[in-house]
Structures are given as structure tokens and as C-alpha cells.
Specification:
Layout (H helix, E strand, L loop, with lengths): L7 E3 L8 H7 L9 H18 L6 E3 L3 H12 L5 E5 L3 H12 L3 E5 L9 H9 L6 E7 L1 E2 L4 E2 L2 H11 L4 E5 L18 E5 L11 E5 L1 H9 L9 H9 L9 H17 L1 H22 L2 E2 L11 E5 L6 H12 L1 E5 L8 E5 L6 H17 L7 H10 L3
Parallel strand pairs: 1-13, 3-4, 3-5, 5-8, 8-9
Antiparallel strand pairs: 2-10, 6-7, 9-10, 11-12, 12-14, 13-14
Bound molecules: pyridoxal-5'-phosphate (PLP).
Length: 387
């Protein structure tokens, strides 16, 4: 089937890349040891520090988020260190599995994949650890597989109240630039992020924001590191350089995406995403379907995972929607495969794009034989029309 108009890429990242960012990326590649690059790289380093909410220098890798996950571990920890991980879904499980591959010893606080990391359970685990065996706590801020956003300030408070010295490592791969986040103010030690979601760029850049405490741990850390070594990245970065070839053209795109985000104003960007989340949930609830996230305080502004009713397969629904309406929705991952579909509502997205997205979902559900109340779309429009 041929489709006129643009493909609707409504997965929870990679998100749609604005035209001006695509134009910026298409500029000729320059000498990454020359003065123009120095100016560009210094500019984006400062811009990214602002987005993270940190006064410290950040690190930019030519890698996807997985690389920056690994960087957070190998730069701060020692072989055999125990760490505390919080099971929120597929991505928290992958981060833990990576830690195991590095010979770290993670303890998982188990979760139901419908709620965020629980500050009280973290408190209990730390209170029980009087020898301070846990060297780090890993939390995924926005769990992209479930549409649940963990409450980092409450987690920080719980850690502080125990007086436990473990580092707090937070994955903001699908929240940075879409959801309020403050690395310094919230007392996070390493924040991990990636380019292809809230920053509206293609995949290929990832980031670490680093506290003074994490930097001190880095100086003692013995896990092997080469590509990810903060010392080399930070030293070169001070001079607007990188220790090896950077993703020059995606960095042009980053400069433009930072301009777009700042032009809208970060607070407006966050408010827009919250509205998109509300409108999407209003549609889902009016259709008579269930949102996967069960905690009212933890709904993701970035994506909504929708539970498929018994007897229906979410992947079949996604296939129908792709075929009929040229729209991609996110699949259920690992144990949620076929049981949920995920509507991405992040990045370069307008009210009408979301309205079109929800119209496509509603029509797809009807074509799949799922009984839905057609008032779902109206419920979303009622929210979208009131700014
Ligand atoms: N963490 C989260 C929350 C993610 O959403 C993703 C990817 O979607 C990753 C980690 C892995 O990052 P990447 O696929 O960019 O390597």
C-alpha cells in the first residue's frame, strides 16, 4: 500500500527529528581538530550542562545510550562492587544485566513493571546495609518500556535520610529534554542520557553528567576503561576537543535542537509533554482500556503504555496501524510482548500530531475488533483544545 504524507513515528524514541535539525546535520563535515569545531563543541557542552541542570562539565560520547550506561559504571566502580538496582521494566533489567557482565554484584529491588522505583524500598535496603557494601544505586528515571517515571527527588531524600554513601546513578535516556530534571539540585551523581528522544536528534550521541562525588570515585575506580574514560573526555572537552573522532554532524544537530528547546523554554516543553500525557490517558480511559502505569504520581509525560484487552495481540494491532495508517507505535518489550503497545508523545510534536496519532490508534483498535468507545478521541481533544 502506498501512503501519501509523512510517516507517523510515534514510538517512544527515536523521536521525530525537526526539519531544521536535519538541515543542520546535512552541513559539510568539518575538521574536528580545527577552530570551528572547537567553537561548536564548547557551545554544545555548555548547552547540555544547562539541560542537565549541572554546573559541572558534561561528557558527550559518539554512542547510543547503552554506551553512556556502561560509562557510568566503569568510571565510578571497582571490580566486584555490590550495587543496588531497581526493577522498573525492561531497561532497568538490561542495565543490571550489563553490570553483571562487568563482574559487579547487583541486588535487584523487584518491581511489578507498573510502578516506579520505590523510595521506601530503597531506604529499607540501605538501612539493612550497615557495612555500606552497596557502592551505587541505579535508577531509570523514565522507564520507556512501561511509561512510568520514578520520583528521583524522593529517592534522593530517602537515601540522605539513611546517611548511606552510595552513588546515585540515574538513566534519563527517555526523559531528558521532555521531563523536568535537575542533576545538581536533586543530588544525582551520574546522569546518563541519549540523543534520540527528548533532544529530537537521530540516535548516535550519549551523555554523562557527573557530580564532584562521582568524579572523586572515578579517580579511585579500577574497572578497565578506554573509550569511556572520563579523564580523557573531560581534559579534551576543556579545550573544545574530543580524544577521538566525534559525531561532528550530529553535534551540528544538537546545537540546533538546543536552540529549539531554549526558544520554546524548558518549562513550556515540560508542560507540553505533561498535557500530551494527560490527553493520551484521557483517550485510553474513555476507550475503556487500561493504562499500564498504576501510580497516579508516576505517569510518564513521554509515552503511554496501553494494556491490550484479553484475547487481542498488541503486535497485530501495531501491524494493522502501520499498514493502514502509516504509523509506527512502540511494541511491548520482553515480558510485555504482545500485551501492551506504547504511544510515544515526545519531542517534536504538536497538538494536531497527537490528535492524528490518537485517531490512528482509535481506528486501528476498531479494525482489530477491540470494542472501544469512540468518545476516546473527543476526550483527548477536550484536553488539547484548552491550553
Ligand atoms: N535506557 C532507556 C530508558 C531507554 O529507553 C533506552 C533505549 O530506548 C536505553 C536505555 C538504551 O539506549 P540505546 O538504545 O540508545 O543504546
Amino acid at each position: 500500500m502506498t501512503n501519501s504524507g509523512r510517516h507517523f513515528l510515534q514510538i517512544p524514541g527515536p523521536s521525530n527529528v525537526p526539519d531544521s535539525v536535519l538541515h543542520a546535520i546535512s552541513m559539510p563535515t568539518i575538521d574536528h581538530r580545527g577552530p570551528d569545531f572547537k567553537e561548536l563543541f564548547s557551545h554544545v557542552l555548555t548547552g547540555m550542562a544547562d539541560i542537565f541542570g549541572t554546573a559541572n562539565q558534561v561528557v558527550i560520547y559518539p554512542a547510543t545510550g547503552t554506551g553512556a550506561w556502561e560509562a557510568a559504571l566503569v568510571n565510578t566502580l571497582n571490580s566486584g562492587d555490590e550495587i543496588l538496582c531497581c526493577e522498573t521494566g525492561h531497561f532497568s533489567s538490561l542495565w543490571k544485566a550489563m553490570a553483571e557482565k562487568w563482574g559487579l554484584k547487583p541486588t535487584m529491588i523487584t518491581g511489578d513493571w507498573r510502578t516506579g522505583a520505590d523510595p521506601e524500598k530503597i531506604r529499607e535496603a540501605l538501612e539493612a546495609d550497615s557495612d555500606h557494601r552497596f557502592k551505587a544505586i541505579c535508577v531509570v528515571h523514565n522507564e520507556t518500556s512501561t511509561g512510568v517515571t520514578s520520583r528521583i527527588p524522593e529517592i534522593r531524600k530517602a537515601i540522605d535520610e539513611t546517611g548511606h554513601p552510595a552513588l546515585l546513578l540515574v538513566d534519563t535516556i527517555s526523559s531528558l529534554g521532555s521531563v523536568d530534571y535537575r542533576h545538581d539540585e536533586w543530588g544525582v551523581d551520574v546522569t546518563v542520557s541519549g540523543s534520540q528522544k527528548g533532544l529530537m536528534l537521530p540516535p548516535g550521541l550519549s551523555f554523562n553528567a557527573i557530580s564532584d562525588k562521582a568524579l572523586a570515585a572515578h579517580q579511585q575506580s579500577t574497572l578497565p576503561k578506554s573509550v569511556w574514560n572520563w579523564t580523557e573526555m573531560l581534559e579534551s572537552g576543556k579545550n573544545g576537543m574530543t580524544p577521538y573522532t566525534p559525531s561532528t554532524n550530529i553535534l551540528y544537530g544538537l546545537k540546533e535542537s538546543l536552540r529549539i528547546l531554549n526558544e520554546e523554554g524548558l518549562d513550556n516543553v515540560f508542560a507540553r509533554h505533561i498535557r500530551f500525557g494527560k490527553a493520551t490517558r484521557a483517550a485510553v480511559e474513555a476507550w475503556g482500556l487500561e493504562v499500564l502505569c498504576t501510580n497516579e504520581n508516576e505517569h510518564s509525560p513521554v509515552l503511554t503504555a496501553v494494556v491490550m484487552p484479553e484475547g487481542h495481540d498488541a503486535d497485530e494491532l501495531r501491524a494493522i496501524i502501520l499498514e493502514k495508517f502509516n504509523m509506527s507505535l512502540g511494541a511491548g518489550l520482553s515480558k510485555l510482548k504482545g500485551r501492551v503497545f506504547r504511544i510515544g508523545h515526545l519531542g517534536d510534536l504538536s497538538d494536531l500530531t497527537l490528535a492524528g496519532t490518537l485517531a490512528g490508534v482509535q481506528m486501528g483498535l476498531q479494525l482489530s475488533g477491540v470494542k472501544v468507545d469512540p468518545g476516546g478521541l473527543d476526550a483527548a481533544l477536550d484536553i488539547l483544545k484548552h491550553k
